[in-house]
Write a structure and sequence with these properties.
By secondary structure, the chain is mainly alpha-helical. About 50% of the residues lie in helices and about 5% in strands. Strands 3-4-5 form a three-stranded antiparallel beta sheet. The chain has a two-stranded antiparallel sheet with strand order 1-2. Strand 4 (about 310-315) and strand 5 form a beta hairpin. Helix 2 packs across helix 5 and helix 6 (about 145-155) packs antiparallel against helix 7.
Length: about 450
């Protein structure tokens, strides 16, 4: 072959690599097979990218051409699953994939095989057991709270709500009590004076307008039930009643988070998150717009105007409304969008997506709060709901028009907005960030480049 023929404009041309179906998966066959599976009526919760690798591995392992995927699928055995796990572990040890990607590859394979079994495409149920490096310890309740939860179930006393507030009391009181040889808190040493300290703690939060009195009442109601349980178990002997000055009933809560605590939470995200711009954009939009998590997860790419700094929000509860985004928050959102455009595999119409390209859900947003809250943040109850309450309270305190605030919050009934008017008019907190989030990111990345692995 004439060497000159391989040149064009003076540059040598690369040889075309021969297509090898056993090594390079025919994506058309995969898509056709996936469409066939979805036509069966079930929902296939598997990312195509992760599934391609799994099917390619099966093809190479079974020596079956990828044009016959049904035959490949029917040849799946426990031995192949073990070999696939070992293959992924080898790639992980070579730093070709990280821990999160490893977990997703294994999950995709397991979900795929489960779908095949549920639809009777394969007759044997298989599962790839995760390696030890992916085994996470289940966060169990302390033994005393486990028993309390069982007591609530048997007594039909709203276990979810009461247990939630009992956990807060446990976290506050446990450092004040001795522990046994198994590191269990010894509640037999609990005194009434220590419970009064918890009352003082809640009273200070009310004075700082972090919570309102009805919220404190509910929290102390959980404490009362917990102490009654301890009495029944003969752990303590004193009785407890909620003081009159902390009693007030209300159908709704309205917890307030000040700017210093919000900024502390944002700084934690900057230090630990692997998806800094995405997670920070989500939380800042909750702070800046006072919207709901479901509205954040519903934002489409076309809903955001980067030139006008606006976003369309939609939910079944509130309908659609157009909101203005502050410059500082818009700067972070632009950084996220620029970063996402560089990742070709992140397709779809949703603005916020998971690392595998699937649209983010409201539950994923809740996980951001769970993952990055410090023990102090847990006591302060920083979550999407408290940020929404903070936004509405600030908007009213700043003297904004009542009807405009109600519309911005997505309240169909003005009575819902009126609930927030009780706030002190002397507190005039601006509804803008007193710091530059982009500078915070740069400082956080320089100070601590480590990121959370999950």
């Amino acid at each position: 072959m004439n060497h000159n023929k391989r040149k064009e404009n003076g540059f040598p041309q690369k040889k075309k690599r021969k297509y090898n179906e056993s090594k390079y998966l025919d994506i058309v066959n995969v898509i056709m097979y996936l469409n066939h599976l979805e036509s069966l009526g079930g929902r296939l919760l598997v990312s195509k990218g992760y599934l391609q690798l799994y099917l390619r591995f099966l093809s190479e392992h079974t020596k079956i051409n990828t044009t016959n995927i049904p035959l490949i699928v029917k040849s799946i055995t426990d031995e192949i699953h073990i070999a696939y796990r070992n293959y992924l572990m080898d790639r992980f040890n070579k730093n070709e994939i990280n821990r999160v990607t490893l977990r997703r590859y294994l999950k995709a394979a397991n979900n795929f095989v489960q779908f095949l079994f549920d639809n009777k495409i394969i007759l044997h149920k298989l599962k790839i057991e995760p390696p030890n490096i992916l085994r996470t310890k289940v966060r169990k309740l302390p033994p005393i709270l486990e028993l309390f939860n069982k007591y609530l179930d048997e007594s039909s006393l709203y276990p979810t709500v009461l247990l939630k507030h009992a956990k807060v009391f446990y976290e506050y009181i446990s450092p004040l009590l001795p522990k046994d040889e198994f590191n269990n808190v010894q509640f037999e040493y609990l005194s009434k004076q220590q419970v009064l300290l918890y009352e003082d703690y809640l009273s200070k939060r009310i004075l700082n307008e972090e919570i309102i009195k009805p919220t404190a009442t509910r929290m102390l109601t959980a404490v009362k039930h917990f102490l009654v349980f301890l009495q029944i178990q003969k752990v303590i002997s004193f009785k407890y009643e909620i003081p009159l000055y902390l009693r007030k009933n209300s159908k709704r809560s309205n917890e307030y988070i000040n700017q210093a605590k919000i900024q502390h939470f944002l700084e934690t995200i900057v230090r630990r998150s692997q998806n800094v711009y995405r997670d920070l954009s989500i939380i800042l939009l909750l702070v800046d717009l006072g919207c709901r998590p479901i509205e954040i997860s519903s934002i489409k790419i076309q809903d955001v105007s980067f030139t006008e700094s606006t976003v369309l929000l939609f939910s079944k509860k509130s309908g659609q409304r157009k909101m203005k985004i502050s410059d500082s928050v818009m700067g972070v959102l632009r950084q996220y969008w620029d970063e996402r455009k560089k990742r070709d595999y992140l397709e779809g119409t949703s603005l916020f997506v998971n690392p595998d390209g699937t649209p983010i859900k409201a539950s994923n947003i809740s996980n951001i709060f769970t993952r990055y809250r410090s023990p102090e943040d847990k006591l302060n109850n920083i979550n999407a709901k408290s940020l929404r309450h903070t936004y509405i309270t600030n908007a009213l305190d700043n003297g904004n028009d009542f009807n405009k605030v109600s519309k911005a919050a997505g309240h169909k009934q003005w009575v819902s907005t009126l609930y927030y008017v009780y706030r002190s008019k002397n507190r005039m907190i601006k509804n803008t960030l007193p710091f530059d989030p982009l500078q915070m990111i740069k400082g956080g990345q320089n100070a601590n480049p480590e990121r959370a692995q999950d």
